[in-house]
């Protein structure tokens, strides 16, 4: 007998409509299997194990990145990979900085110790012994005496402070500070060459006396003055070294007079001439310091020389050129640098390009000025020769 049970109708909530009844906008796009390994540009020194090159990929994707960056474009996946690689590289760099660039075998606590190291300090005070009044006066200098017209004399202590200020100014990328230090180094070398040349001649005379059987000792103070130096720049110690050499020079010269090898007048003249030579060097260095530390030139730097610099930058350059003349191109471009500088060693490509561009412009200007000077001298020479020929014809 057939069953009389009725078939249970499904609940409306559980009815699944046929696919054809679902709006197309709600259908998921079919997942397309990847065609294969993604291609990308590589380079030899890549930070990634697979040689991935961020720079080359950016160049390859330049047009895509400049456009709409459509997600359906086959290059979109490469763009996503590029962005991910950039994030990975930044993480690697952050880890490198946090680890202070140490080898992987070094643990983090050891790497952090690099920041905990203290600055280098002197084990004991630096000192200089002076035997002669001439050298001591050169170190101290002399202030202008009240009520007189006697000019002040710049001493080693003052010029060492000036050199410290100029050395600090190199940290602001001031080309005139570089120029001042280079000029000081050059002229000090000239002083030292003369000092050593005259010392060699004087000591030779003492040796000749010894060859004749007379052994003579160099005079020294029975109570030399010991000075604590405490300079804060390398140039202060260079000044101390010069004064120590001058002190010994004076001792040898006075020995020659005391031992009847030279006359008092000869020795007095030799010491006076060398003293004036040293003071000329000190005066030039102090002049650089006096002008460069003025408010009109505070903050002067190489960036002030670019053609589209701000008004205050142009004012500083104009003031400096008015006082010292244009800075030499080889100094501006850092082709010539002082022995010691606080200028940053690492510069950006943009800064390097600036140095080259402005330096080349200064070099061109120097060349034009040199040509004009030659032309002027040639013209004057031709005019003089014409006058001489005319005078000869009249005669």
TrEMBL record:
Keywords: Coiled coil
Name of the protein this chain belongs to: PFL_4669 family integrating conjugative element protein
Coiled coil stretches, renumbered: 181-212
KW Coiled coil (keyword) present: yes
UniProt-listed Pfam families: AcaB
Entry-linked NCBIfam families: ICE_PFL4669
InterPro entries in the cross-refs: AcaB
Organism domain of life: Bacteria
